[in-house]
Amino acid sequence: MDLGPESEFITLITFWGMRLISAIAILIAGWVIGNWANKRVKSIGKLDNTLKSFLGGLTKYAILAIAVIAVLGQLGVQTASLLAVLGAAGLAIGLALQGTLSNVAAGVMLLILRPFNVGDYIETGNIKGTVKSLSLFATELATSDNVHIFAPNGQVWNAEILNFSRNKQRRMDIVNSISYNDDIDKAMKAIEKTVSKDKRLVESKGKEPTYFVNALGDSAVNITARFWVSTSDYWAVKCDLTKALKETLDKNGITIPFPTQTLEITSGDAEMSQKKAS
Q1: In angstroms, what CA-CA distances link 100 with 94, 97, 154, 155, 166?
Q2: Measured between alpha carbons, how far apart are the two ends of the chain, in Å?
Q3: Which of 69, 96, 123 is the last residue of a domain?
Q4: What are the tens digits of pLDDT across the range 12-52?
Q5: Which of 53, 76, 229, 234 has a CA positioned 20 to 30 A from the CA of residue 23?
Q6: Are 79 and 127 members of one domain?
Q7: Which CATH number fits the domain that encloses residue 238?
Q8: Same structural domain for residues 178 and 245?
Q9: Alpha carbon distance 162, 139 (integer Å)
Q10: Which positions ≥6 away from 174 have C-beta within 8 Å?
Q11: For residues 13 and 245, what is the distance between their CA atoms, to the nearest angstrom?
Q12: Domain boundaries, position 217
């Protein structure tokens, strides 16, 4: 039975209308689920804020991408062909932006493995500074004299990273040089007395202060004072004790030598010099 053009039109409208409603429903569901997953990831307590934001956004947009592909399928778009075209385009873009994508990959590794956090003082390659921010593309730092550094993540990731802030305590060695004519025991007692007065030292099992002769130099005997301090106190203690130890050695009459050279002239050299002068 022929229903006529009007009935076919109504059937077509109904068919595509149902598909459109399904597509909208899928898109809304993808948006809701994506936002829910984003919040769930950000609520994980073990992750820091930078990593929470990155993983939450990645999860959300991955769900939205799946929803969009499903919507296109509901609307009759050949998703297999579309994915093939997008894959080819992605390959071309990836080759064109190879350096940038390597920075993104390095940024992902830095965000996951976390060799440093914002606020840490690090050294990587020839870069030293306090980390101010870490993104997918670059790490921003500030030097001790507040010079801004913008370092691509690939450069940071591919170099050895020294983190001076990660551990709560650090060992410090202060070397004091004394003359060969001075009393070593007297100098060591004076150094130990001065160091032990500082209340910022950490004295726990295995971290007791030690004092020893570590080298016999060309013109001096080197005595090392070795002890532990909190990382936050490191530079303050180093500066204060370096000054205090110099003053202590001076008060005890202990000489801090400097390199000297002795020049010997034989009689033959003197006669030669006189002949040249005449």
Answers
A1: 9, 5, 9, 12, 29
A2: 139
A3: 96
A4: 777 777 878 888 888 898 899 988 988 888 787 666 666 67
A5: 53
A6: no
A7: 3.30.70.100
A8: yes
A9: 15
A10: 195, 224, 225, 238, 241, 242, 245
A11: 92
A12: 169-251
Instruction: Mark whether 157 and 216 lie in a shared domain.
Output: no
Number of structural domains in the chain: 3
Are 230 and 161 contacting, i.e. CB atoms less than 8 angstroms apart? no
Residue 265, helix vs strand vs coil: coil
**Is 110 part of any domain?**
no
Same domain, 36 and 69: yes
64 lies in the same domain as 143: no
d(CA 111, CA 153): 10
Query: Tokens 């013109």 appear where?
Result: 219
Neighbouring residues of 107: CB distance < 8 A, sequence distance ≥ 6: 134, 135, 136, 137, 138, 153
Together in a domain, 212 and 237: yes
- For residue 142, report the phi and psi dihedrals to the nearest 5 degrees: -130, 130
Pair of tokens at residue 39: 């919040």
SS3 content of the chain, % helix, strand, coil (to 5): 55, 20, 25
Both 89 and 30 in a single domain?
yes
